[in-house]
Amino acid sequence: MASEGPRPLVAGNWKMNGGVAMLKEPRLLAAMLKDVKLKADVMVCPPAIILRRVKSVLKGTRIKVGGQDCHWNPAGAHTGDISPEMLKEAGCTAVIVGHSERRTNHGESDETVAKKAKGVQRAGLKAIICIGETLDERKSGKTLEVVSRQLKGSVPEGSTADNTVIAYEPVWAIGTGLTPTTAEVAEVHAHIRSELGAIMGGEGAGVRILYGGSVKPSNAAELMGQPNVNGALVGGASLKASDFLGIIKVYA
Ligand code: PEP
């Protein structure tokens, strides 16, 4: 049972997993979804090196493809980086920015995330902006404060409901098997909705707010059924077509 609001999105973040051998999974997913009526958009975000191969496997299906990160500039002397425009050319319709693994492992600040999100929007793609508190922050009662700060710092000026998606991912829930209670999820998502209204005005009501962090087929219906939860950002469980399908089917 899904909550009311903007059309949901279920996006799979493969992270640094998946070579050519993995192409069978999106192929299988597309086949399994072929005759399923869905009230949600579906996306996979593979590593950049395999993007075009995944895109070609998914040609003619409704499954969209997204990038996992990018530089904010369209081109230039940035060794090892990829621009939003390049991701667009490879067939992406969205790019994840500010994932906690980027914030932690690459020292990305809210300011950097906002620059990347702006670049993604400039290229005509949707920025999936990730935010979320650490376990220490949750334990010390700072969750809403942290989320507010990250939203204010990471959502660029001029963002719209069409070019912006927020993914609330408590850092302590990512890849751990732990999830917040449904009441905690509902509380944070309501807070994000209200903060988006303050930042973006009327556009805030139409922004999709995804929940991410140990979503799996067995907990997806409960999590996705909370108010203001408009889909999921899925890590581990997006790697196997059968698991990912179990989550997506919440919206069938
Ligand atoms: C993620 O990294 O975006 C994520 C939600 O991971 P997992 O589903 O594995 O917790």
Describe this structure in words.
The chain is α/β, with parallel strands linked by helices and 252 residues long. It has a single domain, classed as Aldolase class I (TIM Barrel, Alpha-Beta Barrel). Helix content is 37%, strand content 15%. The protein is built from ten helices and eight strands. α2 links the parallel β2 and β3. α7 (143-154) packs parallel to α8 (182-200). The mean pLDDT is 97. Bound molecules: phosphoenolpyruvate (PEP).
Give the structure's gist in a few sentences.
The protein has 252 residues and is an alpha/beta fold. It has helices spanning 24-33, 51-57, 84-89, 100-105, 110-122, 135-139, 143-154, 182-200, 217-224, 241-248, and strands spanning 9-13, 41-45, 64-67, 94-97, 126-131, 164-168, 208-212, 231-234.
Terminus-to-terminus distance: 9 Å
Overall geometric form: globular
Number of extended strands: 8
Count of spatially separate domains: 1
Rounded to an integer, what's the Rg over CA atoms? 17 Å
What is the mean predicted local confidence, pLDDT? 97
> Which architecture name does CATH use?
Alpha-Beta Barrel
Total helical elements: 10
CATH topology: TIM Barrel
